[in-house]
Amino acid sequence: MNYYDSISDLLLDLRADLEEIGDEMIWAYYKDEKLVDYRYKNSPDESTPKGYNGEVIKEILASELYQGLR
Description:
Elements: H1 7-20, E1 25-31, E2 34-40, E3 56-61, H2 62-69
Antiparallel strand pairs: 1-2, 1-3
């Protein structure tokens, strides 16, 4: 987990991942309603991971997350 300190750093990585990996479903990690990290799903049927220390994890299409953060 990266736990990004700034949304701009997260956006740079997400854009690079979109270009390299493609537009797939990802897990978005939120802490105190603030996006702190994301990761691509290992498989389409992967079950939702468990959050730690109050994290909320949501499934979202990578491009939707990117557009929502811009």
